[in-house]
């Protein structure tokens, strides 16, 4: 009933409930020790095989990680990322039958500053995490969230993709790597390699956190009024930090430990936050929006139950680190609410998480193509997703004086804006003008709004007293990042790299706008007309306006 | 200290708008609500001049407000439309018979012609009889499929150009969430459209939702302040519907962030599917000629199941059996047994 492609249930015979004393369904010899999904009983060894095989299959099927590549593992200390770390370790160890072939590094972000932890707790957590990382032998980077205040602007600049690597060249790359390795071995360079490995084991630690940065972080998070906005901002800052560390140290891939359950929750909460356009990259296997660094999610096939069982049976060490959402009520934020909803629904309808997962696989991101001519204005400043609405649903594009680009007139974002303006009395009862225009001056030419007085500032009733000169951050953001920033009490508490990049883009857009000959967005050049003859019946005063 | 209306700033505010949180006086609220509906209609070009439009009226708050607002806007902005009310009687005692009384009152108050079509005359089954056969778990499927066809049949009988329904923002958002939870990507692609494609082929009248961006709470406030008469009880069979879960979730979301409903609709509008995802192709039913993506339309399959005493025939996959049903061949005892199981 709850699924579209539901089969008939079998005839009502007495079905035996799967109990743990049954035999393993795979090898049919040993006793089962656990049950995953609805009725699959596994013994310990078969489960281990199943788990490890899924990880390899996920990497092998998607072929995005090339041999010899440097890959950054984002470990938060939680069960899923610790499990991922173990899988990578096992995969790289010499005695594995088909060795994984890439060079891993670890990154851990210390978010204690945002979650109001005191210095001792942070120290304790850090030392525990370091102990875990040292045992793995991979180079690790411990970055604290406060370092966000010393990031350069380049983090936000869109970078075009690296050279295309189609599937056929994957095989060639693997063969080449194997040949190289053989040659190295023969020439006795193995010893040098080991020495190099040892040197790489040195930890790369962040410098001590400066008190100004600490204060700035506290100010930032206290200026965000709702927990939803805080969690969203934390997620954005985390992504930027990881991206920057990867770029700085030459990593071209980042592995995140998001499990199936976590991704299903993220899909639903992103829908509720308004991030419909970027669902595919936020929850898919690979996230190519940053261009040179690709984010992959190899754990996306595992439910959190499987991960928990594996960690327990095979002794994977994970830490519980309290975050922004710890000890808050179920309904404190949209993300918390979605999590409790999905978990509760999963108890009644066991296929919920896997159905949502399959839905996310069928989605695709309507991002503007990453051509070299792509204008920066097309992408959101914070999350690097498409800013313009999907065109074509109503063939009636509106130049939005506030968002500064074209929006579909028959869309939810436009309707919300109309509601705002009506509630503020900006479209009064006497202004029964041609409904195609959302500008009270009655003219439909988008540029006349601008020329008349710097962004309708002089229009008076157009906007809520927006000063012409400083950058309007909100017009550079996508729908949902705008909602987050609207929840901020003071925009200047944002880290300097965001505000200076916003200034830069705003200024370049203003320069383009001042020169009307040059189209400043691709959408504008295609849809330059505003429908003057929009409607087939006439409101009474249509002839007066023009 | 009394709060002033944020729109006109001259009269006292009497309500707080659920959508934006602004405090408004009665007159400004009415103006805002009606103007938003007008913008939805004009920007999506829902109607053309001189068309006959049937309003799907159930007697509930959404259709009552829709009928009222359309009538007002038709006069104020001179749409030139010919409006009438179309109602469907499913045969649910204690629910539908009362709501039909409300529709009849609407007809008198707004002076619009009314037509009632019933399941009994169209299919030969009332919902009460269906529930006796099917049980309480899957009955909403029957009601929904039959009602859609009943609306279309009624519209063809009355010779109208368009049907409009009172679906509000909450309904559309719930549908988006429900389709994600059920994995129905085909519907996910279409459910946020403000009007269905159509016109031309027999039996298909295009349908639209003028109240698509109006919150349910605002509709209630509008009806309350305008003192409109409507029927407000839940369908007796609704507590077991899957939609209830999506509805509770949406209400909780709205409590956390009031703009969440509009955000969900925005996400739904901007979803796009990968190419190569299998989508159903529109054709016609070989038995009744109604539109269908399979050989037999869903209501024919459901009716067949009811008439043959196989209540689960329409629930779940049955494509392989379509051919046999069309040829009126008997089914094997095993298959019959499968489809007789009831769930109460």
From TrEMBL, chain A:
GO terms for biological process: protein urmylation; tRNA wobble position uridine thiolation. GO terms for cellular component: cytosol. It is found in: Cytoplasm. Residues 530-546 have a biased composition (Basic and acidic residues). InterPro entries: CTU2 (IPR019407), Rossmann-like_a/b/a_fold (IPR014729). Residues 518-546 are annotated as: Disordered. Keywords: Cytoplasm, tRNA processing. SUPFAM superfamilies: Adenine nucleotide alpha hydrolases-like. Pathway: tRNA modification; 5-methoxycarbonylmethyl-2-thiouridine-tRNA biosynthesis. Its main location: cytoplasm. Plays a central role in 2-thiolation of mcm(5)S(2)U at tRNA wobble positions of tRNA(Lys), tRNA(Glu) and tRNA(Gln). May act by forming a heterodimer with CTU1/ATPBD3 that ligates sulfur from thiocarboxylated URM1 onto the uridine of tRNAs at wobble position. PANTHER family: CYTOPLASMIC TRNA 2-THIOLATION PROTEIN 2. HAMAP family: CTU2 (MF_03054). Belongs to the CTU2/NCS2 family. This is Cytoplasmic tRNA 2-thiolation protein 2. It comes from Electrophorus voltai. The gene is CTU2.
TrEMBL record, chain B:
Pfam families: ATP_bind_3 (PF01171), zn-ribbon_14 (PF16503). PANTHER family: ATPASES OF THE PP SUPERFAMILY-RELATED, CYTOPLASMIC TRNA 2-THIOLATION PROTEIN 1. Plays a central role in 2-thiolation of mcm(5)S(2)U at tRNA wobble positions of tRNA(Lys), tRNA(Glu) and tRNA(Gln). Directly binds tRNAs and probably acts by catalyzing adenylation of tRNAs, an intermediate required for 2-thiolation. It is unclear whether it acts as a sulfurtransferase that transfers sulfur from thiocarboxylated URM1 onto the uridine of tRNAs at wobble position. Pathway: tRNA modification; 5-methoxycarbonylmethyl-2-thiouridine-tRNA biosynthesis. CDD domains: CTU1-like. Keywords: ATP-binding, Cytoplasm, Nucleotide-binding, RNA-binding, Transferase, tRNA processing, tRNA-binding. One of its GO terms (molecular function) is ATP binding. Residues 283-313 form the Cytoplasmic tRNA 2-thiolation protein 1 C-terminal domain. Its EC number is 2.7.7.-. It is found in: Cytoplasm. It comes from Electrophorus voltai. One of its GO terms (cellular component) is cytosolic tRNA wobble base thiouridylase complex. Gene3D superfamilies: HUPs (3.40.50.620). This is Cytoplasmic tRNA 2-thiolation protein 1. GO terms for biological process: protein urmylation; tRNA wobble position uridine thiolation. Residues 53-235 form the tRNA(Ile)-lysidine/2-thiocytidine synthase N-terminal domain. ATP binds at residues 56-58, 62, 88, 166, 171. Belongs to the TtcA family. CTU1/NCS6/ATPBD3 subfamily. NCBIfam families: TIGR00269 family protein.
